[in-house]
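Next comes one such specimen:
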Amino acid sequence: MTTWAGKAADLLAETKRWWTTRIIDIRPGEIRIKGRPIETLIGHAGYARMVWLMLRDDEPTPAELALLEAALVAAVDHGPQAPSIAIARMAVTCGAPLNAAMASAINVLDGVHGGAGEQCLQLYADVLARANDGLELEAAVHAALDAFVAAHGKMIPGFGHRFHPVDPRSVRLLALVEDAVEAGAATGRYARVGRLVERALEQRTGTRIPMNIDGATAVVYGELNFAPPLARGLFILSRSVGILAHAWEQKQQGGRIKGPLPPAVGYTYAGDD
């Protein structure tokens, strides 16, 4: 016969299991992240290492941390016309506090605006999976592109840019990846796949479509063995810095109920007269 005390003990055990985590252990006067006392990390671990530590169980090398930090730096901002940044600024002029402005902006970092890095890394991973199954790498690139186009359409995430003929961020990131490969800190597999995708797109279209920031960060995150969904999360961590900066700047500038364009510009009415 189960006693009242036994039921209470079972309920307490079930309650403790409700949230199960290997990330952090908090007790009175003690905070440990992945087994490391927080006071040993404060003042010793940089932000990139904390991101790695929270997401991974392995210990990064200095070269790996440098690559991660470079990718986080590269994507912080792309100007007030970037939809997420514009949304944050407009939200502030509507009276929203910083947290609401940031949340409004982050909420649009989805499949179209913000998801390209994840999608591109999935494409790279598909290429490598096909190569592991026996296809020559260039053939694997074309097979993966065919499959992606059939499933999602002709726009290939991570390549081409509406504003930059050549994205300066991707050039720098790829150079850093090459340095990491020479130092033995990366395999270069994802960098090679990215270059081959770029070449394949030029063969197919007759036009060079250079890798952009999303394609380059996908290379970095692939080389660092991050899962594709984390590419989007890491991008959001990075872009949140720009979102905060623009929201705060707009708060200092003031303004009231600013829309996406000055009222004098107007818009196009396409209905019946």
About this structure: DSSP finds twelve helices and three strands in the chain. The chain has two domains: 21-59, 83-253. The domain at 83-253 is CATH 1.10.230.10 (Cytochrome p450-Terp; domain 2).
